Amino acid sequence: MPVAVTASTPGRICLFGEHQDYLGLPVIAAAISRRIAITAQPDDQPGFRLDLPDIGSHVTIPLAGRQLPYLSERDYFRSAVNNLLREGYSFSRGITGTVRGTIPINSGTSSSSALLVSWINLLTHLADQPVTLSPKRIAELAYTAEVLEFGEPGGMMDHYSTAVGQLIYLESTPAISLQTLTPPLGAFVLGDSREPKDTIGILSRVKFGMLDIVKRLTALDPTFSLHSTELTQVTEYKDILTKDEYILLKGNLANRDILRDALTLLKSPAESFDHRRFGQLLNDHQTNLRDAQRISTPKIDRMLDAALNAGALGGKINGSGGGGCMFVYAPVQPEQVASAIERAGGRAYIITVDEGTFFSKHRDAEGATECTE
User: Fold this and answer.
1) Residue 24: exposed, middle, or buried by beta-carbon count in 10 A (0-12, 13-18, 19+)?
2) Among candidates 245, 244, 255, which has minimal Cα distance to 317?
3) CA 145 to CA 152: how far, in whole Å?
C-alpha cells in the first residue's frame, strides 16, 4: 500500500530590503503562516500527475528522455524536474498528488517559490534514490529552476525565506550568508489588494534602471558603491542623473540604511525589543518604495492608512509592487486592523512568523503515522 506524503512550504513577506537583493544588497524576510502543500503518493504509472483544485487546473508530466519541453511561460513544474534530472535524480515510478494552498496567488507573497520549494522537497524524497536535503540546498535548486532557468530578474530571497523559514537576514555579496533572527514579534496582518501586478515589468524597470545608474556612476567615480557610499554623498551626482534617477538612487541608499537599523533592532535583547520602532522602520521603508521606487498604488496606500489608523504600528507594500499585497505589524488587536483593511477594499489575513518547508509521511500499510522533517 503506497505511503501518502506531504511537502509543505510557507509564503513570505519582505520586512526590509525590498528591491535590494538583486542589487547585491542584503534583505530581511519572514516566512508566514500561509502555506502551499503537495500531498502525493508514488504509483506504477510513469510520469507525474497533479491536481490543482484551488485554480481548477491539472498538470500531467510524462517522463521521456533527459529534458522536458516547456509548454508554457515559466513552466515551473517541468523546470524543477529538468533541473533534478540534470543533478542525477531518476524517477522510475510515477507520482500522483494534489496541490493546495492558502497563499494569495500573484500577490507578492512568494506563492510560486513556495510551490517550487514544496515540489522539489517532494520529488527529492520520492526519487529512486531518496534524499533529505537541507533547506538551503532546496532553496538553491528552487532558485535555479525559477530564476536562472527562465532568465528572470529576481533574487534569492524568496527561495531562502520559504525554504528555511522563520526570520532570516540574507546577504548575497560577496558570498551567500544567512542568519536566522529570533525577535519577539507578534502578529502581522496581510492585506491583498486584489489588484493584478506586473512582477516582471516592475522588476525590470526598477532593477535595470538602478543597475544602469550604478554602471554609469562607477565609470565616473570608481569609489562609488551601493554598499559603502553614504546617502549624504549622492548630491555629488545630482547633475549627472535625471531627476527620477537621482530620486531612485537616494531611495535605494536610504532603504539600505533602514535595513541596517532594523537588523540592529531585531538583534536586540527580547526584553528590550522596541515594537514601535520596528513599526516606524517599516513605515520609513514604505515611504521610499512609494516615492522613489514608485511601486505602491493608491489602493494599497489607502489600505495602509486604514490599518495604521486602526492601531497597526507600521507597514509597507510587499513584493515587487504595482498591486498585490501589503502588510502591517499589529501585535495588539490584529482583528481590528484586519477589519479596517477589509473596509478599505482589501482581503485581510492575520499571520505570524512560521517554520520553513517540511516533509511528512502520513500512514504506512498498517495505519501508523510517521513524520519526518
Assistant:
1) middle
2) 255
3) 10
- State the Cα torsion 153-154-155-159 to the nearest 10°: -140
pLDDT at 326: 97
- Ranges of residues in the chain whose predicted pLDDT is under 70: 1-2, 65, 153, 363-373
- What 3-state class would DSSP assign to 22? helix
Please give the Cα distance from 310 to 355 (Å, whole number).
29
- In this prediction, residue 363 carries a pLDDT of 52
372 grid coordinates: 519526518
Q: What tens digit of pLDDT does each residue of 148-158 get? A: 999 886 778 99
Write b or e for each residue in 80-103: b if 16 or more Cβ atoms lie within 10 A of its Cβ, otherwise e: bbbbbbeeebebeebbebebebbb
CA distance 226 to 236: 15
Task: State the pLDDT at residue 372.
Answer: 44
> Any alpha helices (H) in the chain, and if so which ranges?
76-86, 111-126, 135-143, 157-164, 199-220, 243-266, 275-291, 298-309, 334-343
Nearest Cα neighbor of 315 from 6, 16, 31, 113 is 16
Taken in order 291, 295, 301, 305, the sign of the CA dihedral is negative
42: phi then psi, degrees, rounded to nearest 5: -75, 150
Please tell me the pTM assigned to this model.
0.91
**Digit-coded pLDDT (tens) for 179-229:** 999 999 999 999 999 998 877 778 777 888 999 999 999 999 999 999 999
Residue ranges of the alpha helices (H) in 221-297?
Answer: 243-266, 275-291
Is cis: bond before 174, omega within 30 of 0? yes
CA pair distance 323, 54, nearest whole angstrom: 21
Distance of CA 46 to CAs 65, 109, 124, Å?
Answer: 12, 33, 16
Q: Which residue from 347, 348, 372 is spatially nearest to 360, judged by alpha carbons?
A: 372
Cβ partners under 8 Å of residue 208, min gap 6: 153
In angstroms, what CA-CA distances link 96 with 93, 195, 279?
Answer: 10, 33, 44
In the numeric block, the cell 534583505 is attached to 27
